[in-house]
Amino acid sequence: MALVATLVRTVLGAVEGWGDSRRGVRGGERVIGTANEAELEEQVTTASSAESGFRSLLRDKGFPSYFGGVAVSSLGNAMSEVAVVLVAMTLVDVELSGQAVAASTIAYMLPGLMVGILLSRYVRKFRPTTLIMADCLWRFGWFAIIGLLYSRDKLTLAIFVACLAAAALSKSAGRSGANATVPLLVPRDRLLHANTLSGIVVQGSTMVGPALAGLIASLWSPVGALVLDGATFLVFAVGAFAASRVIREKGGDEITGGAAETQRSGPWRLVGTAMPVFVTTGVFYLLYGCFVVALPLLAAGHAPEDGGAGLLGVMWSLFGAGAVVSGLLAPRLRFLVRPRSLAAMSGGWGLCMCAVAASPHPALAALSMFLGGLAYGPYGAVVRTLFQRDFSKGDNMEVSGYYGALTSAAAPLGIMAAGILSSFAGPGAIMGAAGAVLVAMGTVGTAVMWRMSGLAAPEPCER
């Protein structure tokens, strides 16, 4: 984990000094919570100091261990997207492979979604790092059981689906714990830096993980790839344990969710407080699902000789590159950390969707994907920073669970809708219509929230 943090710190040195003059531009606007002008001015001043930035963050005690765990487990999560499918296909005859893939995918998603909706309000009673460790150990255990049963030739599709469903039960709690751990390790003025780093490694993992899982499956076995995926969670558990020790050494209070706070913060109040973020994100991910379905079809039309596989890979790689670039620059643009910026980013991504749909040449479509990555890159980091900065620890954990359930449900629903619509319209029309809706929503949302001071809670939140 220390090696991961050291490598990242070296790479980030290239961007350390960029844009100091841009720090604090329009940074005094309040967002979501109750930060007053003096607090925000202090944050801007601190952000301008020589010690601020990515490298100083990775030199802090505690965060590098946590960050290394995030990096390794994110790679495992990305590997599971392919490994789960490949294992399911090996357990049934070819004619049933489609049903097996659907059943296993749903099993690894739906239980966590339901737990996030129904039980997120109860996670505030636990330490954030305890939730991370419990999630990691729980999922590793079930993946190890899958590997053991396979080695003894006792793994069937029904058992595999049941193990995946059991493993998925803890995902929401682990996500909430991870989001609540960062503010306990990182100063308030560097929350966006920390969330950006996490977002970049997650984005990179989605590009590397599936290919790595395919390679391991071909050299060893699909179940072997899944077991290695489970082993990555052990690394995150170790990182969370190290982070918990640092929090205690610093004198931080990791206990969340007292009785008074639980009575004051009901689920509807939290969702209502964060409603602009939830609405923007729900529509954003729903229409992103349409994009995921339409893009391979468009790529195949541009490059029919290989079914568009090569072009699709290039386009997603450029999207990832754009997301990394904008993610690295986001902490220098502190005006992004406000709800209306999310609406603007979704509108920008919608414009790029329209450009990809209308591009007459593959090169223009690929360039549009890079620009789309620039628009999308900081989105997740900004949302997490809003929650961490302006909700109490318990409320942050609860609202993060609801947010995770929303994102887990919206994209699959969009994929389902696009699959149905593809019978009546071409991929260009589907993508163009989805992009136009995002542009309209982004424009209206930005205008509506332009003069808002934020999604302020009724009373101040104490950390």
From TrEMBL:
It is a multi-pass membrane protein. Signal peptide: none annotated. It holds the Pfam family MFS_1. The keyword Signal does not apply. Keywords: Cell membrane, Membrane, Transmembrane, Transmembrane helix. The chain crosses the membrane at residues 65-88, 100-119, 194-217, 223-243, 274-299, 311-330, 342-359, 365-387, 399-424, 430-450. It comes from the Bacteria. It is found in: Cell membrane. The keyword Plastid does not apply. This is MFS transporter. It comes from Salininema proteolyticum.
